[in-house]
Fold this sequence. Notes:
The structure is a homodimer.
Chain A: H1 13-24, H2 31-38, H3 43-57, H4 61-68, H5 71-81, H6 84-95, H7 103-112, H8 115-129, H9 133-140, H10 143-154, H11 165-180, H12 187-195, H13 198-212, H14 216-219, H15 227-240, H16 242-255, H17 261-271, H18 276-287, H19 291-298, H20 301-310
Amino acid sequence: MATLTVPPSVPSPAEDAEQLQKAFAGWGTNEDLIISILAHRNAVQRKLIRQTYAETYGEDLLKALDKELSSDFERSVLLWTLDAAERDAFLTNEATKKLTSSNWVLMEIACTRSSMELFMARQAYHARYKKCLEEDIAYHTTGDFRKLLVPLASTFRYEGPEVNMALARSEAKILHEKIHEQAYNHDELIRIVTTRSKAQLNATLNHYNNEFGNAINKDLKADPNDEFLKLLRSAIKCLTCPEKHFEKVLRLAINKLGTDEWALTRVVTTRAEVDMQRIKEQYHKRNSVPLDRAIANDTSGDYKEMLLALVGHEGA
Amino acid sequence: MATLTVPPSVPSPAEDAEQLQKAFAGWGTNEDLIISILAHRNAVQRKLIRQTYAETYGEDLLKALDKELSSDFERSVLLWTLDAAERDAFLTNEATKKLTSSNWVLMEIACTRSSMELFMARQAYHARYKKCLEEDIAYHTTGDFRKLLVPLASTFRYEGPEVNMALARSEAKILHEKIHEQAYNHDELIRIVTTRSKAQLNATLNHYNNEFGNAINKDLKADPNDEFLKLLRSAIKCLTCPEKHFEKVLRLAINKLGTDEWALTRVVTTRAEVDMQRIKEQYHKRNSVPLDRAIANDTSGDYKEMLLALVGHEGA
């Protein structure tokens, strides 16, 4: 369900590294050449190119890209070139910094990655920032946001398909009670959302819907402007149907006056190799326009070409 | 600093497996032979013996031991034979069960293992129990105990030597304020104890001691019988000088009328390959009697021989 397209016959990492070096050399940069290479190599291939580039030219490819490129195009190429764990470490670190702080990004990464992907991001965080992810999240958040985000980012959820139906019933009841009491930050509600496996949580929420007549996210909309409730609803959406979450992020980013390039770049670079096909379907269904056309109408230049290559439709 | 002794020339796993099978065969069991093999093989060697045994005799070695042995001796051999991650998963699972529940064991394992060891125990927990460790801890604890234990068990602390002295000063101040207000379960106190690296925490506590005149654990003794404060003090001890914690557990286990074999077995089997040498030194210093003599006086039979072999002094 990735949208990344890799040509049937791929040049060797040494050839790719050489072409990239040529794209940087001389006056001006050959952006088309950079896109034609990097946007059409999978994670393993990009990693080998980076290794080979460093060995051959004595410079990290990311440094070279950083020198040659700028603005949104630069950010999209850099994020894409990082491997998934490093990229998540980078994005979460950014999200704990004052000027770029974002509870949304923290929640999205904690809830939409597999348990092992999240753990590898935490390992990459150690390596790069000499700290752990959860200490930065805990330090930079307070109150209910901290209470929800720290366990979301620290958990190592079980991922098997096993579901305990009796537990699903009893925990659906707990959730309903707490929501009815408007105790949205109750320990038990946080415990269920932050520790149960996605399969178990799904069973609990299905039971909630059947038994109490509403989807839980409808009941969590008492005050539609409450920021904590918004984050909680999005966390539940990310845990149970991530493509709907990503569709909404893309929709808001594109429909916004001026386009939210940070969100657009984040979703495209983090999902192109994972579930972008599903997100595209969801987007088309919800907006009656294909995602690539929406992106093409809203962006321009090399940035546009890069995003379109990653969502699988060049020259749209 | 392990106390495990492995002979200079070790038989092949196939020979060891064959000897073990002979020890089980016939009328009665040859406990001495079992001890002479298993109590003198390191983790890698025991793992190979278990694999070879299963391949050769079509039965898990642990099953066979379970059939042949009984009571405290059985528990010590089984725990020792498990690899460290499986053993920690087993002990923490036991500690979340009603009849064997123990916040102490959960705290001890969460705070004295390296970040990677704790993570591997959490992986082993998935594999064996089809659930995650933190969901069982969260489900089986409440209130302040949950608030402390879940993040302790979920964190993946940074382990580098880097220390931020300005942060140590500011967080020592926060700790002192909260303790002064008797807000022992305050979010900020929990955050610092559960997320900072051991090196950073140590710097913070040194600064606390220098600046405020008391070691933190002295200030946390307002009510010496408060169970939460006891657990918090022990967590701090485990994070900063684990050998003192283990010495105390052994001392209480041995001095207790009737001996606490569960604690004794747990500490010996989990530390023999890690830091038992330091624990022995600490024990001797604190009790003016060597640990092996204390164990020999307090236990008997095969169980005694097994423990003595693991602490590095047979036939004491």
